[in-house]
Amino acid sequence: xxxxxxxxxxxxxxxxxxxxxxxxxxxxxxxxxxxxxxxxxxxxxxxxxxxxxxxxxxxxxxxxxxxxxxxxxxxxxxxxxxxxxxxxxxxxxxxxxxxxxxxxxxxxxxxxxxxxxxxxxxxxxxxxxxxxxxxxxxxxxxxxxxxxxxxxxxxxxxxxxxxxxxxxxxxxxxxxxxxxxxxxxxxxxxxxxxxxxxxxxxxxxxxxxxxxxxxxxxxxxxxxxxxxxxxxxxxx
Amino acid sequence: xxxxxxxxxxxxxxxxxxxxxxxxxxxxxxxxxxxxxxxxxxxxxxxxxxxxxxxxxxxxxxxxxxxxxxxxxxxxxxxxxxxxxxxxxxxxxxxxxxxxxxxxxxxxxxxxxxxxxxxxxxxxxxxxxxxxxxxxxxxxxxxxxxxxxxxxxxxxxxxxxxxxxxxxxxxxxxxxxxxxxxxxxxxxxxxxxxxxxxxxxxxxxxxxxxxxxxxxxxxxxxxxxxxxxxxxxxxxxxxxxxxxxxxxxxxxxxxxxxxxxxxxxxxxxxxxxxxxxxxxxxxxxxxxxxxxxxxxxxxxxxxxxxxxxxx
Lengths: 236, 311
Prior knowledge:
The complex is a heterodimer of chains A (236) and B (311).
Chain A (H helix, E strand, L loop, with lengths): L4 H17 L1 H4 L3 H9 L7 H30 L2 H6 L5 H27 L6 H24 L4 H21 L16 H14 L3 H32 L1
Helix pairs in contact in A: 1-6, 3-4, 3-6, 4-6, 4-7, 4-8, 4-9, 6-7, 7-8, 7-10, 8-9, 9-10
Chain B lengths: L1 E2 L2 E3 L2 E4 L2 E2 L7 E5 L2 H13 L3 E4 L11 H12 L5 H7 L15 H9 L9 E5 L7 H14 L4 E6 L2 H7 L2 E6 L2 E4 L1 E4 H14 L6 E5 L2 E5 L6 E5 L2 E6 L2 E5 L3 H8 L4 E5 L2 E4 L3 E8 L2 E6 L6 E4 L1 H11 L2
Parallel strand pairs in B: 5-8, 5-9, 6-7, 7-8
Antiparallel strand pairs in B: 1-4, 2-3, 9-10, 11-13, 12-13, 14-15, 14-18, 15-16, 17-18, 19-20, 20-21
Helix pairs in contact in B: 2-3
């Protein structure tokens, strides 16, 4: 599979225009910003609320947009035509993912600024969010591959939203239901934990663990999404 | 180009075929939807064919110009977008979003993707079906130009569409490919003049479809019926009008095993499978071609037919 920067760029520009003109999808960039303004607080639990907004935004924006971009291409049978051009499957996937990554990164950065979140370790925060964006892009790819239309894609993101965003909250029932312990290993829970740990100024060992877990999630899900992407497109 | 044999439920749908494709010639295959899908699936397995499907969608939120620019950078085509717009006669729609184009133009634009194809073979499914006439003509011209460097094949269920731009048209059925003998109306007039002098006996049945004259070998014909006093020739489910009267046709065809089974029907006896008796005085002939091709048989002709068939 050969990858060409020129074709990736063409797909990136095409998808950017489609994204910016499809208000049903591009409205999603408003939600994180609105949430940031609503929940702006000076109180002590700033880190927890910030973590919630980030987790919500990642699912609602990153996964949703990626799923919609892929599903819409399938819905209109343009993917099949695209496969017959010199553009490889990897070109298409990288072009789309790059767009979603940039949009997410920009929106999350702006949200952070609006929310007024201040951290001692900007580098660590950027790394954690960057890896998370990759992870949620891969999840969005999988959602998009399993949906045939735009409508299906937007519905398929809801399980992701519920499991990943609500996961950290369900942890408060852990004493009643010990099996909920597994939710602690969700990337969203790990992101919250990381933010909390940064707040209290934990040792670097405690900071590294959540980051490693998120990275493992990212690698595994990205590989799965690649394999599925290849397989599902062959079947078309 | 080879096509594999294909059977569905033990019934042979397509025999194994060999198709000669060459540049400078647009080939057409007229066949039913099922065979069309099978052919498309087989072409899709080949790496060297670009397939243009009938249900091809479009990036409706881009403008025409943006789409062409996108196709250009994807395919590595060199011609600037501006001259492509001119070539495609889409100059006035340059800044229009594809979603706002008229329906026919939208399909025309999707078809133009073949222009950017890198593959040596181009297969089009039903290109003309939903196009308005000016767009049909424009696309026909582009295809002719494209055929100079590519091998082009059109698959259609409708012969009229194939007639628009194909140089050679084949009919595909379970027996294989049959080349349709087609001449333009003007050429045919000349031919008729020449043959008149040479006293050459024409053994083909001339029929018309649109502006084209199509000649059928008598054994190809299933039956002929008279509708509003003009003869309609049935060949493999398609109908063609014929300028001759039924009496003339009967005269011409009786040596080929045709039989005037009814005041307004002539049937090819080679293709009769079954004699159906509805009541004592009402009969029909069922043909081998399909379940629903049934031709009436009048009572007076029954005796004659029985004599002919020795039953």
